Amino acid sequence: MAEKEKVVLAYSGGLDTSVIVRWLQTEKNLDVIAICGNVGQDEKDLEWVKEKALKMGAIHSEALDMREEYCNTIVKSAIQANGEYEGVYPLLSALSRPVISKHLVDIAHQYGATTIAHGCTGKGNDQVRFETCIHALDPSLKIIAPVREWDLTTRESEMDWASQHDVPIPVTKKKPYSIDDNLWGRAIECGVLEDSWNQPPADIWTMTVDPTEAPDTPEFVEISFEQGVPSAINGEKMDLLPLVIEANKIAGRNGYGRIDMIEDRVVGIKSRECYECPGSMLLIEAHKALESITLDRETLKLKQHMDQEWASQVYYGYWFSQVRNAIDAFNAYTQKFVSGTVRFKLYKGSLLMDGIKSDYSLYDESLATYGEGDTFDRTASKGFIDLHSLMTSTWSKAQGPASGNQPA
Q1: What does the record note on quaternary structure (predicted)?
Q2: What's phi and psi for 217, nearest 5 deg?
Q3: Which of 63, 266, 350, 400 has the most crowded Cβ, counting Cβ within 10 A?
Q4: Would residue 16 show up in a list of annotated catalytic residues for this protein?
Q5: In which element (H, E) is residue 262 found?
Q6: Active site residue 210
Q7: Is 11 annotated as a binding residue?
Q8: In what order do the strands lie in the sheet with 115-117?
């Protein structure tokens, strides 16, 4: 009997991938190797995911702890790039896909698998991200996306199929949310959230307390950075992984970090998404604040444009690309002096900067002050303004006063 081809499945233990483990065996006659990447999901122990796949017939299953690699290679870059898609939410699903894809490709090589499979939907972003990353790492690997092929067109029909084929699933028809989470935050969609007028149900939030129920006393927190990377909280030095975990706790207990938005997916549709990103929002805001005092005006202006481009490229799945690498090289230079400490006040869902300091600060109090000790040379302003306005005064003389050049 000929040996079956092997397929490496990106496996989470959720509805789609639980059904897919069985489907790949029954419909495609493939031997399944199920790989679950721990990038900081709610569960600390993902051994149950590994065992579940084996019980459903997978020939091999692994739950790999990718958290430190994820933090030190990808989250680090996201902080330095202020990685917020459409200027609103910190990228999170898009960040975890490259590290998971890298391991999927490595394991496919290790076991001689010809194919990689994933459980992404046919109109979501993650199908684009996984497949773009896999193509960049090994274009010869085949890819199967069962959700694009099967006739299980709704989550309810998937649940029915799972029941008929003895596939244990973690969702119910009463509460059919789709959740993707890692240490950088949680993404929640589907169910009642698909109606953009519906208020998000209280039970979707797990990392943050309701702001109205947060402590009545403000909490102050100090975030320190070394070359653009968070290095300490309240003076306590930490590696990035435990620091992110601690930031999630601090911001979460103060009700900070909830987002409800309409975003533009890669495939061209608008989607209603809820995000819970307490630690990532706290750290990115701290990083932005520190950049404001250590980078000059023109560098900041260019970097803000580059940050938007970085976030878009990563959101689109181009982690393994020339442009992302080039922007990271730009950031490597800009972050040389982004070191210092930012103090925030957290109170019932709000975040206010309360102080900032850096040994490399470009803020000079003697130049900024209007009091004693002022060293700014006011006599230089007249000549500066004459030169600064030369372009517009020349235009006005040649083509008429500016007021007359306005549209009717």
Answers
A1: Homotetramer.
A2: -110, 130
A3: 63
A4: yes
A5: strand 258-264
A6: no
A7: yes
A8: 60-65, 31-38, 6-10, 115-117, 142-144
3-state secondary structure of 178: strand
Q: Which of 67, 101, 126, 339 is catalytic?
A: 126
Structure tokens at 54: 């084996």
- Domains in the chain (CATH in brackets) are 6-173 (3.40.50.620)
Please indicate whether residue 22 is annotated as part of the active site: no
Q: For residue range 194-247, list pLDDT tens digits in order.
A: 999 999 999 999 999 999 999 999 999 999 999 999 999 999 999 999 999 999
Tokens of 58: 């997978």
Please return the burial class of 216, using the count of CB atoms within 10 Å of its CB with bins 0-12, 13-18 and 19+.
exposed
User: How far, rounded to the nearest angstrom, does the alpha carbon of residue 77 sit from its chain's CA centroid?
Assistant: 11
Q: Measure the CA angle with vertex 335, ends 331 and 337; round to 5°.
A: 155
Length in residues, the chain = 408
Mean pLDDT of the chain: 92
Q: 235-283, pLDDT tens digit by residue?
A: 999 999 999 999 999 999 999 999 999 999 998 999 999 999 999 999 9
Residue 21 parent element (H or E): helix 15-28
DSSP character for 174?
T
Task: Please report, as a single letter, which amino acid is at residue 314.
Answer: V
Which amino acid does the sequence have at 317?
G
31-84: pLDDT as tens digits: 999 999 999 986 566 788 888 889 888 999 999 999 999 999 999 999 999 999
Given a contact cutoff of 8 angstroms between Cβ atoms, the answer to whether 40 and 51 are in contact is no
Confidence band (pLDDT; 50, 70, 90) for 191? confident
Q: Is 16 annotated as belonging to a binding site?
A: yes
CB 311 within 8 A of CB 81: yes
Spatial separation of the C-alpha atoms in residues 277 and 40, rounded to whole Å? 13
